[in-house]
Task: inverse folding
């Protein structure tokens, strides 16, 4: 599918990997509907990108908030005529914590809920609510493709580190749901793909200490550096454009396998 003149719904689109994705798809002629909690960066980005972009202040852990953003996107699509071509579920958070703390206290359930509600429930809810819109798009090209859903897991889906039980659970679930999602949606001509990045430069990783970053860089094979958001965004674009990518999890990690501890 060509991104040109199609609308992409991008959660987490005000920062990091999802923002780079929005810029990449926008530069390929797409319309981008950005859903994020951060209204300040959201409006800065739409004023920079111009009329082929729209921002909706959204909390993906709230079903009502997603519903409002989808309704807003539906009206926008009606105005522009640029049918929805895909969803990129990029909103995500990390909240490290050992499952059993040093004082023999278990990880608070609130921490687990926080991570699962955004990374897993929020991803599924966004997809679920975008589907009625995507399934009624006019099929495109010889395959009759309607669109693609792109999710973001993490290396933590496969080799999560100490203190990452909740995060790894959320990302492992996203990786696991990719194939059944693709199977459910094949009759509509909608694909589902998950990208699992290792360490990439973003606001999320800016918060890591120098020691943690250095430890991760030591575990890298080649290249020995954090990925750039633009490198992630290029894989999203390839995923949109290459219809044979479906039902799979693509590791984007320079052969890095995360060690148990740093
Ligand atoms: N950067 C990395 O190294 C890395 C590695 C593996 C996976 N990931 C995943 O990539 C995704 C993007 O992360 P990033 O590194 O670009 O981080 P980031 O912090 O730069 O961007 C995340 C965005 O999500 C938004 N967000 C957070 N909670 C939200 C909510 N409830 N509703 C709506 N928006 C919300 C934030 O406001 C922010 O704009 C996440 O799912 C993250 O887990 C990142």
Result:
């Amino acid at each position: 599918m060509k991104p040109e003149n199609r609308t992409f719904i991008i959660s987490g689109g005000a920062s990091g990997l999802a923002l780079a994705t929005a810029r990449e798809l926008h530069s390929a002629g797409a319309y981008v509907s950005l859903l994020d909690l951060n209204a300040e960066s959201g409006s800065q980005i739409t004023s920079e990108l111009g009329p082929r972009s729209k921002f909706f202040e959204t909390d993906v852990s709230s079903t009502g908030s997603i519903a409002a953003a989808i309704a807003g996107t539906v009206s926008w699509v009606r105005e522009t005529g640029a049918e929805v071509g895909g969803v990129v579920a990029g909103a995500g958070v990390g909240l490290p914590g050992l499952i059993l703390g040093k004082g023999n206290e278990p990880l608070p359930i609130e921490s687990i809920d926080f991570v699962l509600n955004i990374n897993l429930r929020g991803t599924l809810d966004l997809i679920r609510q975008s589907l009625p819109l995507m399934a009624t798009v006019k099929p495109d090209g010889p395959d009759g493709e309607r669109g693609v859903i792109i999710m973001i897991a993490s290396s933590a889906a496969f080799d999560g580190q100490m203190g990452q039980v909740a995060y790894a659970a959320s990302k492992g679930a996203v990786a696991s749901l990719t194939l059944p999602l693709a199977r459910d949606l094949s009759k509509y001509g909608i694909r589902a793909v998950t990208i699992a990045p290792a360490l990439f430069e973003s606001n999320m990783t800016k918060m890591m200490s120098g020691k943690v970053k250095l430890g991760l860089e030591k575990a890298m094979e080649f290249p020995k550096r954090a990925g750039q958001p633009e490198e992630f965004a290029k894989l999203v674009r390839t995923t949109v454009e290459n219809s044979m990518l479906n039902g799979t999890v693509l590791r984007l990690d320079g052969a890095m396998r995360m060690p148990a501890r740093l």
